[in-house]
Amino acid sequence: MELKGIHHVSAITANAANNYHFYTEVLGMRLVKKTINQDDPSVYHLFYADEVGNPGSDLTFFEIPQAGRTYPGISSISGTSLRVPNDRALQYWEKRLTEHNVDHDGMTKQGSRHVIHFRDSENQRLTLISDETNTGVKGGKVWEHSNTPADKGIIGLGPVTLTVEDPAPTIKVLTEILTFREVGGYSSLDNDQDDIRVFATGEGGTGAEVHLEVRNDLSKERPGRGSVHHVAFRVDNEDELAKWKNRIKKEGIPNSGLIDRFYFKSLYFREPNGILFELATDGPGFATDEDVDNLGESLALPPLFEDRREEIEANLKPLDTIRPHHSVWSCCIQRCSNWFR
């Protein structure tokens, strides 16, 4: 058994409409699924990804309208990376973020890779990372209707950063229970030492790394809007996931057991520093209940919730996610404009 890389990252937003605008209009990602938090169907769960939501490209958000601010600290997933094709793409993004008044630090280096650290309006800690030198897990493909160029858009999730006070128990889980191996390190922005340790799994590369930061000057993070809820790692199929369940149980780690999320199967557990990990299967995928061309345009409910649709929709604040290019009217306008050229 070997984990294949990052599957998805799930974070918290207090405003689904603003979140949708930022990740689709500013970052050019595709909303591939508008659904509910299956553990709390009164709130949205939004999935942003590449053209079809390939495993390793999904950045997801639970809407919690009452969420307060995040107080960053240890025992947290303190950073999420988004992959772009190369260094030239980062130059494009530096200009784009500035034009959209997005708070960013400009282009810099993270080890041997070029990156741009930035924040959304809720201070979600994000990084654009270049795949210029990537030789590991391949990225996805930018959606053809994205408002970013196909050769510069976001193609998947990059490394996640974990911040802990005591690294030893986390490293033990990563290397002795999961299938990560230490592959290097780099210095943080305010330190000349290689204080960030890098662990990789599977084919390695930007799509299969966890970066571990040790901080002794922070208290435990108080999560809120702009914080990360959990990170999920890729498992090939359900049979393999069952083996992972047995392995984790054998290690004496409490876990959720196998859970059917409809779009994938999952297993959850916390590593010793309290960070929530998920193992998730690559399939069946987001086209299970929607046509690929219309992913994310309507409220998708797993079969378990379908008989409660009327109740669920009544409790959700309407969120219009129909893309203009899909409407009959816009198609007619486009055809008419072609006729009169």
UniProtKB/TrEMBL annotation:
PROSITE patterns per UniProt: VOC
InterPro entries xrefs: Extradiol_RC_dioxygenase, Glyas_Bleomycin-R_OHBP_Dase, Glyas_Fos-R_dOase_dom, VOC_core
Annotated SUPFAM superfamilies: Glyoxalase/Bleomycin resistance protein/Dihydroxybiphenyl dioxygenase (SSF54593)
Pfam families: Glyoxalase (PF00903)
Domain of life of the organism encoding this protein: Bacteria
Location of the VOC domain: 5-131, 156-282
UniProt-listed CDD domains: PcpA_C_like
Name of this protein: Glyoxalase family protein
Organism: Lentibacillus halodurans
